[in-house]
Amino acid sequence: MADSGENHAGSEPQPSNSNETSASAQDVQTEFLDSPQKDDGAPRREDLGYDLFQGREKTYRETMTSPYGKFENLFDTYHPRCKTKLTVAMKSNPFVKLLLKAMEESGCSMYKDRHFSCEPCGYKVAGGFDPQANQVVLCQNIISSQGMMNRVLTHELIHAFDHCRGKVDWYNNLQHVACSEIRAANLSGDCSFSGEFRRFQLKGVKKHHQTCVWQRARDSVKVVRNCTDEEAARAVDSVWDTCFNDLAPFHKIPRNKKDAIRAARFRYDYDI
Q: What is the set of active-site residues?
């Protein structure tokens, strides 16, 4: 999930080889496209961060499909602008294109109208990955620029990639959540030197990136799993070395668009 300060959250399994999947490509594709939403005894929705996404709530969906809601949508400018930014990112951003290719190669192709949803959200988040619906949620009232869309979408696609390639216990294993948050903060550009400088969050030159990733992962785990600072920090620390060094589908920590282009050629012999 992503917060409105461009900090994001989600979850991942313990890292596995990027070429391994938990089932055949066809089985994974079917599960990814059609997995049902069901009550399996998971914790309360508010403890899983769903309360931050009012567009996921049944009452909101019912209101928006009513005659009043449809009339109100005629004057909504957030949603079409969000959809336009999504289209631009999917067609032109190397980070996004690489991750979509990686998903396809892993048997989990993502389709714009099925796996991406522009919705209103609370002020704490800018995006999220919903594993029950297999959807990336983009907060239409928060994402204000194309650059922000690119970063949020990249972050959430890393969570989707983690969900595709391994067995993720999103609801009961805080370490899985922490691992994917580490990877998303590390690989999405959230902690770029220039970005942190503009946000007045620079933590010094030496070890800046690692410090930023750790803090963002801890904060994201805390927000989406309704836990304490101490619990979130322990979860991040317990998987730090393994997950920080798990760079799939990149071949190194990407610093710019050229690194994403090189990664596509290096891993998939694919020009983006």
A: 156
